[in-house]
Fold this sequence. Notes:
Mean pLDDT: 88
Number of strands: 0
Helix content: over 70%
Distance between the termini: 17 Å
Largest sheet: none
Number of helices: 7
Amino acid sequence: YGIFSGGFSLAAAVVVIYFWAWAQTGNARHAQTMGFAIWMIGHLVLATFMRSERQPLLRLGLLSNRAFLLWTVAAVGTLLAAVYVPALQTILRTAPLAPGDWLAILGVALLAPLWMEVVKMVRWRG
């Protein structure tokens, strides 16, 4: 596995959430915002999982890299601004998301690349 398979997992997550949102609402702007949000969150999750090629995240420690944590906070802040600040909504053509939307985004963003962590855990224990 690696960058290619991680990118494929991220692309699959974006496609799944986009079409799910489109099917739920029929609203293109909402579906595009969902796709954009999972793309951003998915990159954060993927970067977290790919911090080490061999060691599982539980062994590395989720909070062990302060620069990474600052980058994550900045990325999430930028995403929230793009989704909820009216001027940015107009420029970026985004729509506000409901709490249920965020739950779907987080769930899919975490599940799509989770197989990578499972592989690392199996290899680490073996």
